[in-house]
Amino acid sequence: MDGRETGGDDPLTGLLSRQPIYCMPVPPGGALNRSLLRQDVYLRLRDAIVDGTFAPGEQLRDHELAAWLGVSLAVVVAAWLGVSRTPVREALLRLGQSGLVLSRPGRSTTVAGLSAAAARDALEVVAAMHEVAVRGAVPRLTDADLAQMRGANEDFAEALRHADAEGALAADDVLHAVPVRVCGNSAVTEVLEQFTPLLRRVERLRFATLGGRASVRAHTSLIQACARGHGEEAAEISTRIWFSLTPLIDALDEA
């Protein structure tokens, strides 16, 4: 911030006018900040759909979403950010590609319902990507990586004991993110970012009940195989963990 002294003999304002006035400078690097804003808008809308803040079938109007997100503040800093509802529109496009929203040309955009067919497609892709990640990560996992996975599984079990679906999902994310990070395959990361959120909507149904406790044991088996350096075994366990969602997905056909 830049400070400067001001003068003046006004008896009412003189005291204040002799105090430093701090002016916040406009941050440099507008292009980078616009990119961060777009990602933040996407993540917040994605999470609001996954956690049920926006219900299936609910209309998503970009100007209302902009106000909800606080993107309307861009009016104040338009010279710097140069944004309005554009990040929201871009986020809705990405969410449509992930199967979380439905957009009809010339009509409204709505939150997609839980489709069994879409969930099965996403499951095939997500399970395959995690299999690749685990197989590639096992030879590189450090003691610290394994400790992070064990800690995440403990947090996962604790969340389930309290029927805390959001906590369970967060811990599950941490656990499975370790092999993804360690394997270092950027293509795997990009694919998972697109399709995992759709499955998270299904997982919330399981983690909100005691039905998710089998996952604690499965996670333990996965971590043990990783610790032994058995890449193929760990990859197979990872695949079984993800395909354990199949009964929940099948139940969507009956709903």
- Biggest pleated sheet: 2 strands, antiparallel
Give the overall shape: globular
CATH topology of the largest domain: Four Helix Bundle (Hemerythrin (Met), subunit A)
Q: How many individual β-strands?
A: 4
Overall pLDDT: 81
Uncertain stretches of 5 or more adjacent residues: 1-32, 72-83
**Rg calc:** 24 Å
Q: What structural category arises from helix and sheet content?
A: mainly alpha
The CATH architecture of the largest domain comes to Up-down Bundle
- Give the number of domains: 2
The percent of residues in helical segments reads 55-70%
The topology string of helices and strands comes to: EHEHHHHEEHHHHHHH
Strand order of the largest sheet: 1-2
Q: Give the number of helices.
A: 12
Report the span from N to C terminus: 58 Å
Please report the first level of CATH classification, the CATH class of the largest domain.
Mainly Alpha
Strand content: under 5%
In oligomeric terms, what are we looking at?
Answer: single chain
Question: How would you describe the overall organization of this protein?
Answer:
The chain has helices at 14-17, 30-50, 62-69, 78-81, 86-97, 116-137, 143-161, 165-183, 186-207, 213-228, 231-243, 246-254, and strands at residues 2-4, 21-23, 101-103, 109-111. With 255 residues, the chain is mainly α. It folds into 2 domains: 30-111, Winged helix-like DNA-binding domain superfamily/Winged helix DNA-binding domain (Arc Repressor Mutant, subunit A, Orthogonal Bundle); 116-254, GntR ligand-binding domain-like (Four Helix Bundle (Hemerythrin (Met), subunit A)), CATH 1.20.120.530. A hairpin with a 5-residue loop joins strand 3 (101-103) and strand 4. Helix 7 (143-161) packs antiparallel against helix 8 (165-183), helix 7 (143-161) runs antiparallel to helix 10 (213-228) and helix 10 (213-228) runs antiparallel to helix 11. The longest helix has 22 residues, at 116-137. It is globular, with a radius of gyration of 24 Å. The protein starts with a strand and ends with a helix.
